[in-house]
Amino acid sequence: MSTVMPFPDLNLMPDSQSSTAGTTAEDTVVTGKPLVKAEPIEEWQIPPSSSPDQSASSDLVAEFIRISNLFRSAFKPQQVEGYGLDSGAIVAVPDEDNRGLIEPPSGVSSVVVSPRPAKFERPRELARIAILSHDQRTQLRQVMKQTRMIYECLRVHLLAEERKCPALGQGRRARSDMTAAGMMRARGLWLNYDKHIVGPVAGVEIGDVFFYRMELCVIGLHGQQQAGIDCLTAERSATREPIATSIIVSGGYEDDEDKGDELIYTGHGGQDRHQRQCENQRLVGGNLGMERSMQYGIEVRVIRGIKYENSITSKVYVYDGLYKIVEYWFAVGKSGFGVFKFRLVRMKGQPRRATEVMSFAQRLRREPLKVMPYGYVSFDISNKKENVPVYLFNDIDGDQEPRHYEYITKSVFPPAIFGQGGINRSGCDCTNSCTDDCLCARKNGGEFAYDDNGHLLRGKHVVFECGDFCKCGPGCKSRVTQKGLRKGLEVFRSKATGWGVRTLDLIEAGSFICEYAGVVVTRQQAEILSMNGDVMVYPGRFTDQWCNWGDLSQVYPGYVRPNYPSLPPLDYAMDVSKMRNVACYISHSKEPNVMVQFVLYDHNHLMFPRVMLFALENISPLAELSLDYGLADEVNGKLAICN
Length: 643
Hints:
By secondary structure, the chain is α+β, with helices and mostly antiparallel strands. Helices cover 19% and strands 21% of the residues. Among the domains are: 227 residues, SRA-YDG (PUA domain-like), CATH 2.30.280.10; 218 residues, Beta-clip-like (Beta Complex), CATH 2.170.270.10.
């Protein structure tokens, strides 16, 4: 898959690599090697050997340890003879950060708290990963996507379990993002943790968006849960020098200056708990690692933490590529205390910065003509039928085909499938929102299909939502797909794929996008209509990408995917030749970022479920959506629409 190349011993580098001729962004070298001012030695740092009375001190410590052990042994949990009572009056309570989760038995979804395995040790050497071929890059990208999917599914699963089990929420609650990362680490599911990676991380691309810092640790992009500078510390380094490999720029320091391709980054340290500078910074730890990386010409990964609307968290983290540290200096900051400042310049030849693209997309939604004065054919091909407008953009040719058909927001079903049998008219009796034991929950196998944010908890053959015959209100968490499109989408013209669809919003993994809409017909009707050249799409041929969403078998060895509710083989088609919606222009791909989930809410006819589209991963603004329609020879109808 890849070649891990140990990083060369920095002390053995030739003089030509440790001297400098300039401060360019490509290859910055600095003349000389500045001396690091030694910090004053505190009294507590003096080793015991320097004490004048070492033997007396050692005897005192030994006696203290002996008495402490005797005291602890008196309170060990044990059965008191003759009474069967537990004498554990004093019992050590494990700290929240030292607790992990073990897998539940097969078929049991409850979470049990238990001690975490041995302390996790970070790597002790630097390495670069050399990708050998396009196929290997593709494979590593898929591994990274799969790991991120497991993390997100596990996180929402833990939130759902906490809601169902009030006992888990008593006392200090563990954050689901941190708990999920700890469980994956215990199972050996973290990526790139065996080496401290310098430069690009295999499988991670510029523009990848993350909602939690712990996810950066899981994939090996940034190994610090809180610190903004990630470095190989001097204690772990073979050269006894720290080396910085990545930084997070999130506005935590008032002296930072972010100009995009050029960045003035303030070193860390010297702040109080309110993030106010209260003392001078020192050239130690991460600050010294930044200085050493500059001296050796080592690039650092830059992740920006930015506030972004419509996100599930207050801040998102975006990978913006590799930067070189070209200079640093010590100056008095705005607070009046001394801070270290590092000037970084983005290396050339990289894709466009993701934060720049996200800012562009935000302006595009508000003022499209000011951002792109040419190319827009329509600012809403749905004619206000959707909750948000659907743009149409073509700056390649004069084709305006997406305007020349009737736009529908939902598939048109034969009237005969509605109202068949009493079960089709059954619904829950919930007043405001559904409860765990209501009829709709039992239809879904005894659990809710979505979390509080409307994200799919796990993929199933079919999901039953509350419908017209349910007494719960419109705010019920079991009503998600029926509310329609919520993310801004744009149909655009491409020289490579014809028509395609890209998002103008940030779409979270597991969230609903839109329905794949057309006129539903039987297979026999489809065969007749296709003879006239009408375009048919067969829902039964979409690949079962939903099987991967919510699969926690790698975390819980005894995990069993529920097989209820189930669907019979689907044997209907959708005519999208004259009536369709934006989903019909989504491109085909064997590595899709969108999946199909079948849903029923306005009828319960299992032979005719609605085709709903959900995000398989976090999809960045202006990224193209893709679906796996099945075999290539079975998607000619869809490709005819796009081309």
